[in-house]
Design brief:
Number of strands: 15
Strand content: 25-35%
Oligomer: single chain
Largest sheet: 8 strands, mixed
Radius of gyration: 26 Å
Order of helices and strands: EHHEEHHEEHEHHEEEHEEEEEEH
Number of domains: 2
Helix content: 25-40%
CATH superfamily of the largest domain: Nucleotide cyclase, GGDEF domain
Structural class: alpha+beta
Length: 385
């Protein structure tokens, strides 16, 4: 194993940290909590406009760095504001668009964000294709994640950073709230800093828009398929609503890609890979509704002018009736062509798909397994329940 050490250089160290992550994972569903955290971390990375590089993703935090001159107060605070607003806009969207009621999805809105910004001498160890930052100042940046700042959400700026920028203006002029001074004593030595609460930025987080994905005029029902699936309604819905798994039971489908969400929700989109071309259907799932013994949702293909409505009905403790209704827009020619040349093939493939779906769901029941998507439509379980 060969290791190459690069001499230390002046470097900005910048850490957005998602607070509440440990409790969030400990008391909620692991799969969905992982998806939520991954999406939030990706949003923070996508909001990078300061030319930051990612050194490590550390579970609930990202270690960014940038070599060279320290940023100005305006540059750094603008970066923090952008990341903060995007982070909380995504959390608000969970509340308005989610359909899953599991602990992870229900508790996501309680996550918070803090930032640590430090400047110092940082080196790099290169081990084969892997590089890792090292040096006292890397340790200092990580130590600062544990501090005495009284706010739940804040940015902490070390004096080393403030003093490194010759054009750093008075932070009181650039910030959205008055900074407070603080200091910590670590094993690596004393660290002085100022910290600014982020609460004032909540006013800049936009309220999400709940889009209407319905197809205007799609009132002509051209096909209906009705089947019985020998599995509980929650399990059947879990399988059908999982866009990433459609190709495992739908006839003629090679794959599902271009998913915009890992957890099914209102506005989830995907492409049905049939011929691997842009003419393949691009679907959006929407209008999820659930009652005691029924579940329904719609998938719409606006370009091709059709929509499919899935309805699940509980007809026994372990049996579900699944109905699929196909609607076309108001186009007499397309409707006539479908009935004459396409309906027979569509019904045959739908029947075959239903049989494969039934076989898969029966196998899960027989083996006592759940489907990986694990969408929970009822209220989240209580602690210890």
């Amino acid at each position: 194993m060969s290791t190459v050490a690069r001499p230390a250089r002046p470097t900005l160290l910048f850490i957005p940290d998602i607070s509440g992550f440990t409790q969030f994972v400990r008391v909620t569903e692991i799969t969905h909590s992982r998806h939520v955290i991954e999406e939030l971390l990706e949003a923070l990375i996508d909001a990078n406009e300061l030319g930051l590089s990612v050194s490590e993703v550390e579970g609930d935090a990202i270690l960014f760095y940038r070599e060279g001159p320290a940023p100005t107060a305006a540059e750094l605070l603008a970066q923090i504001q952008r990341m903060y607003v995007r982070f909380h806009a995504l959390l608000r969207r969970y509340d308005t668009h989610r359909i899953c009621q599991c602990g992870a999805c229900s508790a996501a809105s309680g996550l918070t964000l803090k930032f640590i910004a430090h400047y110092g001498e940082v080196g790099t160890n290169q081990v084969k294709t892997h590089s890792k930052l090292f040096g006292r100042d890397v340790i200092v940046a990580h130590r600062l994640l544990k501090n005495q700042v009284p706010h739940g959400e804040y940015v902490l700026l070390t004096h080393d950073l403030v003093n490194a920028c010759a054009t750093w203006v008075d932070i009181r002029q650039a910030a959205w709230a008055d900074p407070e001074e603080g200091a910590e004593q670590y094993d690596s030595g004393p660290v002085e800093y100022c910290h600014i609460p982020l609460q004032a930025l909540r006013a800049q987080v936009p309220e999400p828009t709940v889009e209407d994905f319905s197809l205007p005029g799609a009132t002509e029902r051209v096909a209906t398929h009705d089947t019985v699936i020998e599995a509980p309604i929650d399990l059947v819905f879990d399988v059908v609503a999982d866009l990433s798994a459609r190709h495992h039971w739908m006839v003629g489908l090679k794959d599902s890609d271009r998913l915009n969400h890992k957890i099914p929700q209102h506005g989830a989109t995907h492409r049905c890979v049939i011929k691997e071309s842009e003419k393949d259907p691009h679907l959006v799932s929407h209008d999820f509704k659930a009652g005691g013994d029924f579940i329904t949702f719609t998938e719409t293909e606006r370009r091709q002018g059709w929509a499919a409505v899935f309805t699940f009905r509980r007809i026994g403790a372990g049996t579900t009736r699944l109905e699929k209704h196909l609607f076309l827009g108001k186009n007499l020619v397309i409707g006539l062509l479908f009935r004459l040349f396409m309906r027979k093939k569509y019904m045959q493939e739908t029947e075959q798909s239903a049989a494969r779906l039934n076989a898969y769901c029966k196998e899960l029941v027989r083996e006592g397994r759940s489907h990986p998507a694990q969408i929970v439509l009822g209220p989240p379980p209580t602690a210890g329940g």
